[in-house]
Amino acid sequence: MPKVLIIGPMVGYNKSVADAFVQLNWEVEVETYNIPLHPFKGWLRWKHKLSFNRERLKAKNREKYNRFIISRFEEINPDLVFIFNGDILLTETLDTFRQSATVALWMFDTLHRYPRSQGHINHVDGFFCYDMKDVEWCEKQGRTAFFMPQACDETSYFPISTDKDIDILFIGTLYRYPKRIKLLRLIINKFSDKKVLIFGVYKPYYKNIIRWAFREKRKVFKNKAVPTDEVNRYYNRAKLVLNIHHESQQYGANPKVFEIAAAGAYQICDTNPFIKSLFTNGEIGLYQNEDELIALIEDALQNSKDENAKQAREVVLSGHTFLHRVKEILNILSKQPLANIPPKNN
Fold this sequence. Notes:
Blueprint: E1 3-9, H1 14-23, E2 27-33, H2 42-50, H3 54-76, E3 80-84, H4 91-98, E4 102-107, H5 115-118, E5 126-129, H6 132-140, E6 146-147, E7 166-171, H7 178-190, E8 196-199, H8 209-213, H9 228-237, E9 238-243, H10 255-262, E10 267-270, H11 273-278, E11 285-287, H12 290-302, H13 306-319, H14 322-333
Parallel strand pairs: 1-2, 1-3, 3-4, 4-5, 5-6, 7-8, 7-9, 9-10, 10-11
Helix pairs in contact: 1-14, 10-13
């Protein structure tokens, strides 16, 4: 039985990928990391906050984690190392892995938000990007990368029988996402007579306790994160779920595109060529500007979109689960080594 070591951030999709490998009869080990320090809690969190030289602190912490993960690699002796983002890893660590294992790295966010990971591309056997624009950027640098969109875990997101008692729902990161906050405020004002719920930290107390204490519309903005099992329940309770991508997303999709659809909820999402190519028959509402967004919301509140949501779920389950992605990655890795990657040491 082949063996895989999965290395990913604590806020990630390690279990979903691990389950996919298990379904394919792999033996699985998972190791997580936190950023900017590992573990980012307790004294280390305060040490980072109070440090006069954070970069030096992060470098020392990174070296410590790399010593640990190399020791775990030697204990496990995997055939494959599967990495999410990998910004905590050193290129020397990747080279050590490649002496006896195949190494794959899947960027689960835009490459330009993780500049340290850009240098990893010449030290892995397969470099996978979630946005086609990142693949094109890599090619302009003379490097080979593969487009690998995000996916859903159908065991976490699925339809349940419940009342549709929420008109408009958004769940996602808000802090440092001004585009999302602007659109959500517009929607709140436009649909003030509807039940709107917005989950996501947008005014954290540890950043500015005054702004946190006097934050607005607390019945709408819940200012907190939601566990996955609760997310699925909220999706199922909503007449429509909003999905607003980060400005960096140009040709790809965030996980919510697949997760909302897998939950059986109707989704209204900002469009790009990739998302448009997936949902060609109105399975989800796609908008390009504020006027189209408002029109789609009005339509969804007046007319049932249950059939659209059902069709969107079928699209996702037919080709966009983590099992589909892992199979595709393994297929790519099984082919000849990439020309721009040095051969492994024997």
